Amino acid sequence: MSARTQRQPPTVAVIGAGSVGATIAYTALVRGTARRVVLHDINAAKLKAEVLDISHGLSFTPMGSIDGSDDVEICRDARVVVVTAGAKQQPGQSRMELAESTVLLTKKLMPRLLEVAPDATYIMVTNPVDVVTTAALRMTGMPPEQLFGSGTVLDSSRLRYGIADTIGVAVQNVHAYVVGEHGDTEFPLWSSASVGGVPLVDWSRRHGGVLDEDARDAIAHDVVHAAYQIIEGKGATNYAVALACCQIVESVLRDERRVLPVSTMLTGDYGIDGVCLSIPTVVGSGGAMERLQVPMSDAERRLLRQSADSIRRTAERVDA
């Protein structure tokens, strides 16, 4: 191995040059998430244009490079592979309605990726992400810590924004998670949420009812329906999901061990087995390293099982 090869920075490969994939590649370079980003897509003309556009801004970013190819070989020996390839969600269409075509694509794509990057950490982003992640794990037999989904990391950020905007505090001081499916059956863990160390369920009582049950229900509704609203208005969600994905990638590359609600295969946790969904999880260089046993109310446990049942039904329907 040459000295030049030894100095090669870890590669982050992004599969799919659509709105989400291209924005993840761009964001990774702007944030300094990765020094080397490669982009793969079967649409060579679109891919070339995205790579060229991003390349023209590299003098304004931290040191980095981007390459692209319609040949999966470009992903060889990648440290992290972010999979965004799949059917585009249309206005009014649920994520679960994307399942069949996306699972078929995933089954074709994963063996080719594993040939060139068998040791990479795989982060599945394609929707419905929980079903896609379940399918990818079952077909590849990969360890669940090595392959997991982006889950509700974005949804949790939406929740924190909604809380912060409602009560007038910095979003960074809100600690709250959305769990379950990344989709219509997801829900906030209100019982463990806090603001500056103050339990969120106490906030309304101490601050004039500003975050009462009606307000919390409205925030939760906005979180669940945010993607529909954005897709209706501009055709795709891309900015916030790219930032969410880059935080996951950074936690892997830098062994940050952030607690992130990524989608992993549950094996008896909370009485759920054999399906992927999101629970706060320690993410580091070993991937999705440890799922936390978050205190939940009886009602929240029921909602989590209902969410798991929804994912399982779709997975079985599309033979995931």
UniProtKB/TrEMBL annotation:
Keywords: Allosteric enzyme, Cytoplasm, Membrane, NAD, Oxidoreductase, Phosphoprotein, Transmembrane, Transmembrane helix. It catalyses: (S)-lactate + NAD(+) = pyruvate + NADH + H(+). GO terms for biological process: glycolytic process; lactate metabolic process. Beta-D-fructose 1,6-bisphosphate binds at residues 160, 175. The active site is at residue 182. Pathway: Fermentation; pyruvate fermentation to lactate; (S)-lactate from pyruvate: step 1/1. Allosterically activated by fructose 1,6-bisphosphate (FBP). Residues 152-316 form the Lactate/malate dehydrogenase C-terminal domain. Its EC number is 1.1.1.27. The chain crosses the membrane at residues 12-29. The modification Phosphotyrosine is found at residue 228. InterPro entries: L-lactate/malate_DH, L-lactate_DH, L-lactate_DH_AS, Lactate/malate_DH_C, Lactate/malate_DH_N, Lactate_DH/Glyco_Ohase_4_C, NAD(P)-bd_dom_sf. PROSITE patterns: L_LDH. Residues 12-149 form the Lactate/malate dehydrogenase N-terminal domain. GO terms for cellular component: cytoplasm. Homotetramer. Belongs to the LDH/MDH superfamily. LDH family. Catalyzes the conversion of lactate to pyruvate. This is L-lactate dehydrogenase. It comes from Ornithinimicrobium pratense. The gene is ldh.
